Amino acid sequence: MKGSLCRDCHSEHQGRDGDILGFNRESFQHRFTDFELRDRHREVECASCHLPEKAYREASPRCVDCHGEDDAHGGRLGDDCATCHVERGFSETKFEHASTGFALEGAHARVDCRLCHAGDRYEGTPTECRACHATNDAHGGDFGPNCARCHAPEGWDQPVFDHAAETRFALTHRHAEAKCSACHSGTFGREKLKTRCAACHSPDDIHRGRNGSDCASCHSERGWDRVTFDHEKETTFSLRGSHAELACQGCHQRNPREEDLSGACIDCHASDDAHADTEGRDCGQCHNESGWRKRLRFDHDITRFPLLGLHAVALCESCHTSMRFRDADPSCIGCHASDDPHEKKLGENCGRCHNPNGWSLWRFDHGRDTDFPLQGSHDGLNCLACHTRPSPGAVSQASDCATCHDFDDIHSGGFGRDCGRCHHEGGWSDVRIDQR
Question: Which among 48, 300, 320, 428 counts the fewest CB atoms within 10 Å?
Answer without folding.
Answer: 48
